[in-house]
Amino acid sequence: MVKKEVSDSMINPCNSIRQHGHIKQQQQGFAAVRIRTIAGNMTSDQLRKVAYLSDKYGQGQLHITTRQSVEIHWVQENQLKTMFQEIYDFGLLLAVRGPRVMTVIACPGVTLCKRGIGDTTRLATQLNDCVVGRDLSGKTKIAVSGCPSSCAKPQINDIGLHGIIIPTVFEGCVGCNFCTQHCKVAAIKVEEMIPSIDSSKCIGCGACVKNCPQKALTAKRQGYTVYVGGKIGKKPMLGTKIFSVIPEQEAISCIQRILEAYSRLSFKGERIGTVINRIGMTNFQQEVLK
């Protein structure tokens, strides 16, 4: 295997933020280096490597960022090239900054959480491979939550998704009322052993489907709800729901279409929400569906 070398051009101030997750500290000559995680996950071996890097190049101080990266402080700028080489050699990833798709954040999802619907880790891994780091008009944050509890805060990201189950009534109800006991929004009633669902109240958490012992409630549709245009910062805004339910297997193509529409419609520096405010949600959605 040929060893990948880190060149001097890769730490040029003009492109360092684009190519590497490091930022200048207020202290002259020092930088903070950000190491990316996938859906907030790291192995114990990776953590030991990060600790080693922090001890060797920093002051043993680490910070977990809001985008689930690990930040090493007090790195001398004249040691960045050497440190980057070790990061590559360890098989670690540097975080992403600037006008491009940033590190995808996610909750544990269905693999660990009892409320999970979507496989957030798998989706975040796929997004890391195919869209993270893509140059765009402005920075673009993506968050994935496994259910409508929205622990990863998809509504305040440029693109946000949460898992959803749309329940429907099947047959076999025995009137046990397990579904009503588990529904936190009182969206379901059982009368004479016939469940009825109030769609105006249902949030799609799937608790009724998961907890019905007779399987009298099933998933009519399952996948992700998609939001666009959310952000925080100086002018915060909540994302707008662009798709109520998309199949899980279509999540990647959906996000790619959103990014392509954003790329076509945006001016330099505009976030997705700014584009939507300028042209309207209907027009933006039409561009996504082209």
From TrEMBL:
Give the signal peptide as a residue range, or say none if absent.
Answer: none
Source superkingdom: Bacteria
Q: Please give the PROSITE patterns that the UniProt record associates with this protein.
A: 4FE4S_FER_1, 4FE4S_FER_2, NIR_SIR
What positions does the domain 4Fe-4S ferredoxin-type occupy?
Answer: 165-192, 193-222
Question: What are the entry keywords?
Answer: 4Fe-4S, Heme, Iron, Iron-sulfur, Metal-binding, Oxidoreductase
Tell me which Pfam families the record gives.
Fer4 (PF00037), NIR_SIR (PF01077), NIR_SIR_ferr (PF03460)
GO molecular function (one): heme binding
Keyword Protein transport tagged: no
PANTHER family per record:
BLR3264 PROTEIN, FERREDOXIN--NITRITE REDUCTASE, CHLOROPLASTIC
| Protein name as catalogued | Dissimilatory sulfite reductase (Desulfoviridin), alpha and beta subunits
